[in-house]
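Single-chain item
Fold in token form
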Amino acid sequence: MSDHDILSDAEREALSAVMLEPDLPPQRVLIVDDDKDARELLAEILGLNGIRCMTADGGEEAWKLLNSTSSIGLLITDLRMAPSNGLELMRKVRESTRAELPIIIMSGDAEARDVIDAMELGVVAFLLKPIDSAELAKMVKRELGMAQ
């Protein structure tokens, strides 16, 4: 556990089990980031705003979750990940049956070409880190059709 964790490992496991229940509405957010602390912190922040989240440590795990979990209604992905990056994941999504899935991309290190490529793939937003968590929560709730 890192210094900013508010949940114990046991609480986190229990919460994950509840989030995987099949009868939940299609309002989950899939957060993809190869930085464990960053993705868990973002999931905790959104969770405090009543938003259910799942996490993946990269494009391959995210792709598996997107194909096996129909309740994912929004994808938030980091741009720079290894071995595949956020743009590669977005291209894969846009060429699949989940092509209409809203996507938010974030980066701490983006070039103009990255932003243009992301916009051409139809992202909801391209956010630079550090992320304004209040603004992100509003954006996510709007995209998921949740009352604000």
Observations:
- The longest strand covers residues 72-78.
- Strands lie at 28-32, 53-56, 72-78, 103-107, 125-128.
- The domain at 26-142 is CATH 3.40.50.2300 (Rossmann fold).
- The chain has a mean pLDDT of 87.
